[in-house]
Amino acid sequence: MNYATCFHKMISYNGKLYIFSGICVILRASFESQDCPFTEVYNPETDQWTILASMPIGRSGHGVTVLEKQIMVLGGLYYNGHYSDSILTFDQNENKWKEDEYPGMPCKLDGLKVCNLHFPDYVLDE
């Protein structure tokens, strides 16, 4: 990874590992933390990390998932102490974030755990 961070989220998608935001720790006379609105991807075929477009606002405690081929980042806690109800989408092909594709969540949430549930077609057909 290009950034030393904690409280980031990661997902595996299309054979690559994506890392989203978190808190960076910068070593000076003492430890000082700041938000890191970064996005990175690891490609195991090339064994390389690549920095992608930064999130509009860095956060921790957010949820990350893939829904209908879109990477989504939900909620979280901004570095300034405000909670988020936003739903961001990341287009990995265009390397762009979209903020207004979905309405906000009904409330502001931190500490999200998000998962996907995929049923095989034969289960859904019955």
TrEMBL record:
GO CC term, one of those recorded: nucleus
Q: Which UniProt keywords apply?
A: Kelch repeat
Enumerate the InterPro entries for this protein. Answer: Kelch-typ_b-propeller, Kelch_1
Instruction: List GO BP terms, alphabetically.
Output: nuclear protein quality control by the ubiquitin-proteasome system
Which SUPFAM superfamilies does the UniProt entry name for this protein?
A: Kelch motif
Q: Which PANTHER family match?
A: KELCH-LIKE PROTEIN 15, LD33804P
Name of the protein described by the UniProt record = Kelch-like protein 15
Q: Which organism is it from?
A: Sciurus carolinensis (Eastern gray squirrel)
